[in-house]
Amino acid sequence: MNSRAPFNIGIAGPSCAGKTSLARRLTELLPGSTTIFGLDSYYHDLSHLPFSERKKFNFDNPEALEDAMLAAHLQQLACGEPIQRPVYDFPTHTRAGDKFEEVQAGDFLIVEGLFTFYWPQVRGIFDLRVFVHAPDRVCFDRRKVRDIEERGRTMDFVLAQYNETVRPGSESFILPTQQFAHLVISGEQPIEESARQIYGLVEAKQSAGVNRQGR
Questions:
Q1: Integer CA distances (angstroms), 206 to 6, 120, 126, 214, in order
Q2: Disulfide engineering: 180 pairs with which of 66, 117, 152, 165, CB 3.0-4.6 Å?
Q3: Which CA distances in Å does 30 have to 18, 38, 61, 73, 138?
């Protein structure tokens, strides 16, 4: 167990704005041990539904995630305590009921995901909140490439999903959370530039001391 509470960084933004790439580069810059924590493991288990129905599920609504468990686990990590995180299988949209992954925060905890700032009990743990913004056309072009090349989706599926759930979900639940960010950066600027900008803020906050009661 980590004897000290980590410095907690939240990164939010729409799908394919560049959150994961930014988190990975930031990890390389930060001194000490760093854990990147995604929200995907906390999607509800859909094993009770036929597979045909699981594929239609709206994953772009915050109600798709088990937010109470997520908040409890992040509170533990923020206190330097390890957690047993559930294992989620995206191809089948089910949770492995008997498998868990131990996660420890280390010196820095980076939480990245669509809804990172949506729930007050989650966003309240962060010492620094960063929102990555990118135009809709950029997000769609990136998602199209990712879903077709990496996930075997068809163009028709990608387009329908984006128009029916991804874009509406972003407009309703994700973009409004930009108001909670300490820093808003462009998902179109170089990752290196963005990562160093965040790193500079981390250094400044650590030097000044973080007043968590004022978060």
A1: 11, 23, 13, 15
A2: 117
A3: 18, 18, 32, 23, 28
CATH of 7-208, one of 3.40.630.40, 3.40.190.10, 3.40.50.300, 3.40.1050.10: 3.40.50.300
Q: Which residues contact 134 (CB under 8 A, 6 or more apart)?
A: 13, 14, 16, 17, 18, 186, 187, 188
Give the residue among 140, 153, 141 at the shortest CA–CA distance from 91. 153
Which of these ranges, 46-55, 67-76, 206-215, has the smallest mean pLDDT?
A: 206-215
Extents of the domains making up the chain: 7-208
Half-sphere exposure at residue 69, Cβ-oriented, CA atoms within 13 angstroms: 15
**pLDDT, tens digit, 9 for 90 and up, residues 59-105:** 999 999 999 999 999 999 999 999 999 999 877 889 987 889 999 98
Q: What percent of the chain has pLDDT over 70?
A: 96
Contact between residue 133 and residue 187 where contact means Cβ atoms under 8 Å apart: yes
